[in-house]
Design a protein that fits this description.
about 240 residues; alpha/beta; seven-stranded parallel sheet; 7 helices; binds 2-amino-2-deoxy-6-O-phosphono-alpha-D-glucopyranose
């Protein structure tokens, strides 16, 4: 079941999800978390760091997997998701680096995704999966298509994603063309999913999702979440501006 919840602003959303992390780690010290990148989860990661510094959480046995990564950027590149996660979360909590996993294609020509799939399969079901959403409905880098992949795969980014993500790069032509991402079945393999959608740019896709509740459509990959039993879509006032919440 998918629940839409409207909150005042991104920090209220961050607080609500951060409470779930506290409870989750109290119940299970070796919890498995699925993390996302992009601007949407940044307030949450700030709150997780704050809670850790206040002694409310302990990640020493926790494990994490990330949704996706650009192909062709080294893990030290400022725009790589590996770098993003270190800078925005991992370097500030006590999760062990060996327990954090961001997809990494070592040989850009081989495009072998089996290594990351093995990691996903070995860490098992995520206790909490965090998601953002692209303005075209992508989750991870599962772009709109006639059919969607169940598992880890290489994807060519759509023009709209390249455009949207170019705000983080010097120019559009240096945004990597390809990425590696978990597939839809991998994303759904989570006990609880929280999707964060904030800001006016997400109002239209949230409106579409809200109005097509219960229907899955590969042209709107986020609609696959309707197959999940415990997914909460948290929207701030701007993202909720076209829906009657
Ligand atoms: C990227 C990531 C997604 C993310 C999306 C939204 O393309 N691959 O995982 O959810 O963008 O990003 P933002 O939160 O910056 O809007």
């Amino acid at each position: 079941m998918v629940k839409f919840v409207k909150m005042r602003d991104p920090s209220e959303i961050a607080e609500a999800i951060a409470k779930e992390f506290i409870t989750q780690l109290q119940i299970k010290r070796d919890s498995v978390f699925g993390f996302a990148t992009g601007s949407s989860p940044i307030p949450l990661y700030k709150k997780l760091i704050e809670d850790f510094h206040n002694g409310l959480t302990d990640y020493c046995l926790a494990k994490s997997v990330n949704l996706d990564e650009y192909i062709g950027l080294s893990p030290n590149h400022e725009q790589s998701y590996a770098y993003f996660m270190k800078k925005n979360l991992f370097d500030h909590i006590n999760i062990m680096p060996k327990n954090t996993h961001v997809p990494d294609i070592k040989d850009n020509y081989l495009k072998d995704t089996s290594e990351y799939q093995k990691i996903l399969d070995s860490v098992g079901q995520r206790d909490i999966q965090i998601l953002g959403i692209g303005t075209n409905g992508h989750i991870g880098f599962n772009e709109p298509a006639a059919s969607l992949h169940a598992h880890t795969h290489i994807v060519r980014l759509t023009d709209s994603t390249t455009k949207a993500n170019s705000r983080f790069f010097k120019s559009e032509d240096v945004v990597p063309e390809y990425a590696i991402t978990m597939g839809i079945a991998d994303i759904l393999n989570s006990r609880k999913i929280f999707l964060i959608a904030t800001g006016c740019s997400k109002a239209s896709i949230i409106e579409t999702l809200y109005n097509t509740q219960g229907f899955v459509n590969p042209q709107n990959p986020a609609s696959m979440l309707f197959l999940h039993s415990d997914c909460t879509i948290l929207v701030d006032e701007d993202a909720a501006s076209n829906i009657p919440l």
